[in-house]
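Escalated from tier 1: magnesium ion holo job.
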Amino acid sequence: MAVPSIKPQIAPERKSLTILGSTGSIGCNTIDLIGRCPEDYRIVALTAYNSAEMLAEQARRLRPELVVIGDERRYGDLQSALAGTGIEVAAGAQALIEAAERPADWVMAAIVGAAGLAPTLAAVRRGAMVALANKETLVCAGELMMAEVTRCGATLLPVDSEHNAIFQVLEQDRRETIERIILTASGGPFREWSLAEMAGATPEQAVAHPNWDMGDKISVDSATMMNKGLELIEAHYLFAMPEPQIEVLVHPQSVVHSMVAYRDGSVLAQMGQPDMRTPIAYTLAWPRRMAVAGERLDLAAIGNLSFEAPDPGRFPTLRIARESLDAGGGAPTVLNAANEVAVEAFLAGQLGFLDIARVVENTLEAMPARPPSSITEVLELDREARRRASATVGQAAER
Ligand code: NAD
Ligand code: MG
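Tier 2 regenerated the structure:
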């Protein structure tokens, strides 16, 4: 089993933390939790891509040793906003890696996309406890990443609500008794839309998720259901589970976050409000549980929980993701890169909603799925897939 078994640990007086992607939806939820008992934590580093004002505001409040802005053009703004504070300021891709390399007990990996791969890997390589939200990292480099986790003695704690749910109910020591894992999916904002309606879907409609408040990229992924495809691949690597043993079930209320089915017929589920602070808190306090005030699950008020099979006709992304996992090698790397390009083009108004899946599938068909044997090769494959996907986006835009 790739995820570690739970053993009692003595918590240090103050836990030292780094948040990669602190200005995003996951980053802000993490800061919300930390802000409730700031005396328990010492912040080592905060990073963002280009939201210099927000990053500076977080830094003034949380007093980290270091803040890093990915976009070097924003370095001056960040530096002047933090002048006189004594907080170290840096910029650029290499500085993001150095932020992850700084000693901290716990690192939240919450950068969106394959851009998170190098910094997340840097935290893994120093054997840190890594709370992993950045699922794209596992999709594009799952095998290599998990091998590094083992080699370096790092601890990977899944933040994605489904994987966090599975982590909570998976009997680690009785692996042979597990029949399958069941990932639940909300079905997104277009669950009941016809194909014709989906063809005209706008970015605003796609990012308006019914249950979860998330960043734009993952919101579009939820609307196409590619998010569940990425999560299927994430679950495969995280829990060393063969693809046919991972089921996907649409559950519009987002109360049951995922389930594990055992060979005696038992199915264990983890439930909770659709609030990312719950899984984040679980990883922050692991192997304990922290007290988190907030709205509680009221099943009587909800009344009914419903489940349905996903519709492969309107949501082909799940099939495409399964096929890429079965093809193995670099196919998931290609899938992830092509999807990032297509989602960005859709958000920029350059691509129709239904074209997202087409771009991904065309890119996969056009590229041989050679297995990358190093992170450098993963990054090369990622770049090549982005070039091909961008060309396909261009062709789709001309049609
Ligand atoms: P977001 O877009 O709200 O935030 C992304 C963060 O990454 C920001 O801080 C941004 O500045 C930073 N960033 C973006 N591009 C970068 C780059 N090139 N280099 C360095 N930093 C960069 O995204 P989010 O919704 O918080 O999601 C973050 C990750 O967590 C994603 O991988 C997502 O799939 C995963 N996740 C999110 C949720 C959720 O509820 N938001 C749930 C499960 C998993
Ligand atoms: Mg999820």
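Residues 163-273+301-398 form a domain with the Rna Polymerase Sigma Factor; Chain: A fold (CATH 1.10.1740.10).
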